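Checked the freezer inventory, then went back to the computational side. Two predictions to log before the end of the day. The first one is the construct we discussed on Monday; recording sequence and tokens without edits.
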Amino acid sequence: MRSLISFVLLLLAAVASAISVTGERLLVVLDDVAEKAAYSKFFGDLDGRGYKITYETPKSESLSLFKLGEREYDHIVFLPTKAKGLGPSLTPAILLQFINAEGNILVALSSKNPAPTSIVSTLLELDVHLPPDRSGLVVDHFNYDVSSAAEKHDVVLLPAPGALRSDVKDFFSPDAPNGELLAFPSGLGQTLGSGALLTPILRAPNTAYSYDPKEQAESVDDLFASGKQLSLVTSVQARNSARLTVVGSADMLSDKWFDAKVKKSGDKSSVATLNREFAKRVSAWTFHEIGVLRVNWIEHHLNEEGQSNQSNPKIYRIKNDVTYSISLSEYAWDSWTAFTVPANDVLQLEFSMLSPFHRLPLKPVLSSPDSTTFSASFKLPDQHGIFNFKINHKRPFYTNVEEKNTVSVRHFAHDEWPRSWVISGAWPWITGIGATVVGWLAFVAIWLYSKPVAGGETKKTR
């Protein structure tokens, strides 16, 4: 009996751990609940990872994202709808309120259905721009699937995205040992503003472009965007680390393209698609299953012999030697692991008043299976005042780490100054004082103990 209870508890623990760190309640908004059958594998993967999925239509009277000021759901998935609006429960203001309440949103678009005005307005608030007609089509006459898009060239084939930069971790590239490709069918491209919160996950090939499929002219003069200007999958991470992802092709998430074989123009053989693994990684990032950092503890203390080693004191003295340490963990799928800074990146500590007096790299000094401790030692500046130990680590695809510890830095106390005889620069002055004192004492001694010289008697005359 005891072994059975232990097994059940372990099973429940495993299920509970295999979900997002921000919650398991997932809302899926679609035109008709029956449409979920076309995405059964995508939703099956989410269900297998522990999410409790609720399916609703925009017209549902019971649909509400908040109840008594609290979120009813932790995450939302929007699939394409034929409706121009999403109703009073899904207005742009409510969706932005949901993001401000640390909720996460995955938006899947399609060139077959114009994007709802609520979605368009929400994306505009985040500086993500869709074509003016809200239904532009991305095509590529060089990188397309010859079997399913021989005429329209609207099934764009491209490799896994790879790392954004050399100092950014790659979360979205599945292994492709046999040259597997991503299929992007009937997609709606986006252009991005210059906001620091925007990061493209998947960009279009250089030969791709977006146009209005309703225009039947042989040549397209007015393009929405082309090449690397087009983002096919876009990520937005708010300052509170809430996430919104825009997938330009909802068909990319469908069962049809999870198991499809595609053949690129000019290739001799067909290959499988990477869509299923890519969709898993994109949804996992959006719902805080990967790319999540946690601060376990922070400590700063004196690093001097003969001084008390109190942790996190509120006051230091100028020119003190101090050590600052921070412990970080990274959530990866179902457990907390040790955080490793990418090879060309650095975790920095600022010691600042109005501006940084020190900006120092934090080096890993201790690692365990679930955390890494980073540390730096330095000498406080010769400046008194109110200072901050500050960590401001903001990197693409990682949650933000913002930590600030305020301390006071005082002058030397009257009994902490070094004595004058210790200071070599004071030795000439001390010598001068000594010479003056010795000379004065010698003069006084000579004056007091010297006998006056005897003088001869003189006779006074009138």
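The second is the one RB wanted added to the comparison set:
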Amino acid sequence: MKNQISPVIALEKPRIAIFVSFSGSGGVERMILNLTREFLNLGVRVDMIPVKQESFHLDLLPQEVNVIDLGASHNLSSLPGLVRYLKSERPDAILAAKDRANTTAVLARRLAGISTRLVLRMGTTVSAAMAGTHPIRERIWYLRMRMLYPSADAVVAVSRGVAHDLKKNAGLPPSLLRVIPNPVISPELVTMSEQAPDHPWFQESTVPVLLGVGRLTRQKDFTTLLRSFAFVRRNRPCRLIILGEGRDRGSLQSLARDLGIMEDVAMPGFVENPYAYMRRAALFVLSSLWEGSPNVLTEALALGTPVVSTDCPSGPKEILEHGRFGPLVPMGNPEAMAQAIVKTLDAPLEKSLLKTAVQAYTVKESSKKYLETLLVK
């Protein structure tokens, strides 16, 4: 191995299989890429097993990664191929990410009849994500987790809030859970942030630009962000950029028109380099109804950008230390969010202080903890 990771890691040139559904362009995909790159830096071989091959993320993987094609189109159809892979290749450990991939990985290891160490990653607060769904569907979801997840060797929760949720609602024993901060902060993040954003508003430094980033879905609640921005804009010049794409684009644009703020709201869609926007924004706003550990909030702080966040389950309260590093406001409350935005614009915290909030979220530190969980005697 190139580096000594931990006394508990005793395998020579270990091989880790990562089974994941690259189903979007969000935080999970970026975190898996960050982990993979750092695993390679630390002398670990990586087999990447995507549920399906149709993802631009595969093009971003280092050449040293061995990409396994299961010939599948969804999680269920990937099961036979994953079983065959495990029987023939027998990696030292498997890391599965996202709930459906977790389920498939547990079943595949059982069917393969091998003892390869299996670690599951949970990146969202399940109870909040299931809120509003049919009670029968919710019960089936938790029943599946109670039946299958304890078969794994460990379950990584990305925040203490996610771990508590898994204990309380899925009945997972504390001994199974490991809280590991996401691998967010890297030299590449800083380098990318230094590039010029492709938007004219950042050339006019006198008008502050607020920024939101995420999928345009109910979870991110950009409706509340738009309404709060309308309150702020009544009393001062400012602009809002929302980066991301999703099924709520049409309704959000209609709301912006109805609020009379369309000329000061931009929704350019998904951009490959949101960090250039984050670095230059006057303020980053997280308006989510639920998260696990919001990477975009961590990224903004790492770049020294002031933040305002909802106190949603889970993650923001931990990252911001109960409001020390940025205001926490009730979910779905535009007035409270607007007040916090104004106060933060008027008296932003020092960049150096904001950066100290997320020191535990470096790629190096997080990857080391993942390896300590994956590769044990």
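For RB: The chain has a mean pLDDT of 92. The radius of gyration is 21 Å. Let me know if you want it refolded.
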